[in-house]
Please model this.
Amino acid sequence: MRRKDMTMAASRRSGGAVRRLAAGATVAVVTLVGPSLSAAPALTGVAVAQEDQQDEGSPEDPGQGGGGEDLGDQGDPGAEDGAGAEDGADPESPEGDAPGDETADDPDRPRSEADRRLNGNVPTFPDVDPAAPPGVPPTGGDWALFEHRTACITPGASTSGSLPPQSWAHDYLRFDELARMGATGSGQRVAVVDTGVNRHPSFGDRLSGAGDYIDGRDGRDGTFDCEGHGTIVAGLIGAAPFGNDSRFRGIAPGVELVGIRNVSNYYQTADDEIPEEEKVAGAGNTDIMARAIVQAANQGVDVINLSQSSCQPITDVESPYVQRLHAAVKYAVHERDVVVVAASGNGADGCSTNTADNVTHMTLPGAFPEVLAVGATDRTGALAEFSVQGWWVDIAAPGTEVTSVDPAPGGEGLANMLDIQGNGLEPIQGTSFAAPYVAGTAALVRERFPNLSATQVVDRIKRTAQQTGGVNGVAFGWGTGVVDPVAALTRTLPEEEPRADALFHGGVHHLEERDWTPTIVAVAGAGGGIGLLLLTVFITRTLRHTRERDRQLAEDG
Model:
């Protein structure tokens, strides 16, 4: 197949497979998960991940074209590669929990984690070491890959007739109570790895750039955002009250924001071999995403927000590009102690067909166990219809009817709509805009509990969520529930309670052993003094009584 034909095939298909662009390269679909379900197809881009060069007659990569070899369940991270993959068995699952067990077909039987793994419903990634990819900072070689396609959005064009000063999420997540508590995220740095972040009055001097992988010419450093996606995200995290819009604020208005551009749907592949009308909208790829994650981690940030995803078959866990991305995430979490938050993805093609008993696709990087994956809810409290569901979704947050800062270059006000590539205004909604509330919560937790590690911060956020049911407190597509920032900052977890065995041992109260000698001496001394005093009183009273009796006898005589 000619290269341009393959590119066209890639543009027509989203939802997942890894596809070969040319000898030694594969493609994956990357989506900016917002602003709306209807706009999701327009936000589809092509991501290229370089692999080892293969000869023309060599076999295709696993998962190419949505098919390919079924890799099966690869076992838990840390297990031997391929363990249990041949027959789908999970080496750690208890006997009797296999799919053939007589109780496995009972629809009312709660599904255990082991059940889900055995049925292929949870992606189990091979163990990879934390690693930074080569060539982390952006270079001119990156910029040469892409060319500008669509004119950037303009200030003031992203509003409807009635612009609310804040989203319903402000009340739902109790922003006013957070403000009364003094929770601002001060001293924390949050990286927005996205389409860049434009400067805005609400950011003040708290925004800096750390790299532009799409177009770094003219000194662009991650603080230029052509389409506004990353700026909206940054506003939800760290906007401070400003001007006439003083009621609007991000969830952590005191954080320092770090912008990095690693993806854009307003650019396209710069390839003269592909006719202009056949070029695919979208710049960026999974290897660039991996580099951007490490670049952010190396800036000393405390939290990374990734409002982007790549929908892939659940069988592609061993694909090289997946492993490279996973290694970068593990580097950020385990080597740099960074909380990594990612959107769960918006429904499109294969990803929207997942059910609790039949998960066919996963979204990356959210599916990695080290990542805090976020689904979206609507105003009614229900899971938003566009929110991709999977057992890897850890938590949910508001993701509809969003108001944020005007995301255009030079914008100064607020916005609640977005014009996607000239296709008309769309409401701002998507899991892209649920993730920032969780990333901001992570910054607040790190401010409140500075000694917690990244994994402990994630654990606290998940365990303090508003539970929505499910098995053992975990529901499909919801995770542990809806994020509760106030509870994450104030709730005492069971292990933080005073230990009972500090005072009681085996149910019997043991007093502290001490030397009683000084007390005994003091009491004895005091007792002796009291005894002498009583004796003196007794003698005095006896003598007085005797004299009185003798006087009486003398008078009678």
